[in-house]
Specification:
The protein folds into two domains: 131 residues, Lyase, Ornithine Decarboxylase, Chain A, domain 1, CATH 2.40.37.10; 228 residues, Alanine racemase (TIM Barrel). By secondary structure, the chain is an alpha/beta fold. Helix 2 crosses helix 8 and helix 7 packs parallel to helix 8. The strands form two sheets. Strands 1, 10, 11, 12, 13, 14, 15 and 16 form an eight-stranded mixed β-sheet that branches. The protein has an eight-stranded parallel β-barrel with strand order 2-3-4-5-6-7-8-9, surrounded by four helices. The chain is built from twelve helices and 16 strands. The chain is 28% helix and 23% strand. Helix 6 links the parallel strand 5 and strand 6. The two termini are 43 Å apart.
């Protein structure tokens, strides 16, 4: 079904580079999350750090309870464009910004007891009293890439059992933990065991627990029944509200990036230079690292007849996307469609080298492609 839908897109009419956000897949993911919420009682939030394209918020807020913001800009975007619960977490709040969060946030999580003690009087004095929580670090994670491991040794995120200040819990109504990254339900099960072992004596004293993000819930391989069972048992045991804030799961497989071939050069291998960039437009390719899928291409350089190493248009030597094979030879102006390009792309992209940002469009359920935003020289000039 996906291939049929993608084949119907007139790639030749698209000015590249261009992100395309798929309404149908966003709704499919939303229905999965809404069903789990109804069966388990958990409340799902959109983590804006992963995806904050507010042109899709009218769709997503049909399925989600709100958002989690990690900065004042994300907070303002949530309040203005999402309009439901706004949860705030930051590794450290700026004193000149903190009171702004008190105006509309529903929940504020503090990364440390020192931050809580610094700002708790501000909370007490505010007319709007958000529910406050502490981030805890259960010191367990199944994330293989250290760059994305929030519980790695010497992590700055959350309070460990050794540093926990039980006598400072007055006014704290929730706990937040985040240990996962694109992980399965079995990893959450092990995390919950560690949370109970280290912090179980305090769980009956709070009203809510935020189990963070990194849950690969909408992937076909995810064990949804186990997740539902884990949440229900946890809620019943401790009488708490449970929140999850996946970013990737909300928009999994719901985004594409269309690029054009600018040139083909040869240096022992055929190398196609594109008008997009790994470092500028798809940074997780280099940071994770991983190799994305391309529609009608193979990640095996020998599976199909024509093989190319794909490179970006910037001057970074390592701006390469990977080696692929195609049924037909690539030529200048050939269009490539990269899959699963919603999460951590638009929010992390840059205009390094002055390379233009991809435009943003929405592929509607009826197949209509709506251009939402494009970028130009003024976009670059305003940033620098």
């Amino acid at each position: 079904m996906e291939n049929k839908r993608l084949n119907s897109i007139d790639l030749g009419a698209i000015k590249t580079p261009a992100y395309i956000l798929d309404e149908r897949t966003l709704r499919k993911n939303g229905e999965i999350l809404k069903s789990i919420s109804e069966k388990s009682g958990a409340k799902f939030l959109l983590a804006l750090k992963a995806f904050s394209s507010y042109c899709t918020f009218p769709i997503l807020k049909e399925y989600l309870y709100g958002t989690t913001a990690s900065s004042l800009n994300e907070y303002k975007l949530s309040v203005e464009e999402f309009g439901k619960e706004t949860h705030i977490y930051n590794a450290a709040y700026r004193p000149d910004e903190f009171d702004s969060y008190l105006e509309h946030s529903s929940h504020i999580t503090f990364n440390s007891f020192s931050q809580w003690k610094l700002f708790r009087d501000n909370v007490k004095k505010s007319a709007h009293r958000p529910s406050c929580g502490i981030r805890i670090n259960p010191e367990i994670s199944h994330v293989n890439t250290s760059l994305y491991n929030p519980c790695a040794p010497y992590s700055r995120f959350g309070v460990t059992k050794k540093e926990f200040e039980a006598d400072e819990l007055e006014g704290i109504e929730g706990f937040h933990f985040h240990t996962l990254c694109g992980s399965q339900a079995e990893s959450l099960e092990k995390t919950l065991a560690a949370v109970e072992e280290k912090f179980g004596e305090y769980l009956h004293r709070v009203k809510w627990v935020n189990m963070g993000g990194g849950h690969y819930i909408t992937a076909p391989t995810y064990n949804v029944p186990l997740l539902i069972d884990l949440i229900k048992k946890f809620k019943e045991k401790y009488d708490v509200e449970v929140y999850l804030e996946p970013g990737e799961a909300v928009v999994l497989h719901a985004g594409y990036l269309v690029a054009s071939v600018l040139d083909i050069v040869k240096n022992e291998k055929e190398i196609a230079i594109l008008d997009t960039s790994a470092t500028a437009h798809m940074p997780d390719i280099l940071e994770m690292p991983y190799q994305p899928n391309i529609h009608n291409a193979s990640k095996s350089p020998t599976e199909l007849a024509h093989s190319y190493l794909l490179g970006g248009a910037t001057c970074l030597s390592g701006d390469t996307i990977g080696e692929y094979s195609f049924s037909e030879p690539l030529t200048v102006n050939s269009k490539l469609l990269f899959k699963d390009m919603a999460q951590y792309t638009i929010v992390k992209n840059t205009m390094f080298n002055g390379i233009n940002l991809p435009s943003i469009s929405i592929l509607r359920e009826d197949g209509t492609l709506d251009l939402i935003k494009s970028f130009d020289y003024q976009s670059f000039k305003s940033r620098v």
